[in-house]
TrEMBL record:
Pfam families found in the cross-reference section: TetR_N
Residue ranges of domain HTH tetR-type in the record: 11-71
GO molecular function: DNA-binding transcription factor activity; transcription cis-regulatory region binding
Name of the protein this chain belongs to: TetR family transcriptional regulator
DNA-binding region: 34-53
Alphabetic keyword roster: DNA-binding, Transcription, Transcription regulation
Taxonomic superkingdom: Bacteria
InterPro entries named among the record's database cross-references: DNA-bd_HTH_TetR-type_CS, Homeodomain-like_sf, HTH-type_TetR-like_transc_reg, HTH_TetR
Organism: Rhodococcus opacus M213
Amino acid sequence: MRSSLREVQKDLTRERLTEAALTAFREQGYDLATADYIAKLAGASRATFYLHFKGKAELVLELLDRLEPTVVAAYRDLDELRHAPRSKIHKWVVRETARWGADSGRFEALDRAAAVERKVQERWFLCLERSADAMTGYLSEFPSGTSRRRARQNVLMQMITMERGMFLSSVRGLPLDSKLLLESLTDQWSSVLGSAGNPSTR
């Protein structure tokens, strides 16, 4: 029982440190936020921070580990829409844009960390690659070899385009026309998935 209570306390402390880090990154930026400041916000000591994480990058990598299943699941949902009407693809784009807005703090922390931490960049791209590979229905429509590799690359490039668009709009709050952004992303995904050229799918 005591061991179980210690594990619960350890998990709670780790969660407090993670949430405190998000606050610190928003307030000071990833570069300037220190382990001391993160620990202070969490009501813990610097030693406690390093008991849980080797550094800020490891903390952000844990955020990515938590986020990846949601991202992969979203693209599995999109894969189911590859022959769907454009209106359903649009609903998916709206839903994902809303998710970015609701979780903007985490996405901003990831972006700031990726700008200076190579391993965070690589981990985020791995998340996108796994998301592309989750679109098995779409990829199966292309013969193996060059054709399928090109199709996978097209999906990856569109994911990056969407990620940048949603980041600049939902996280950074740049004055982009949100309605036009949603329409543009819908058109792009419709084209990639092969439904844009078929009037019956609109």
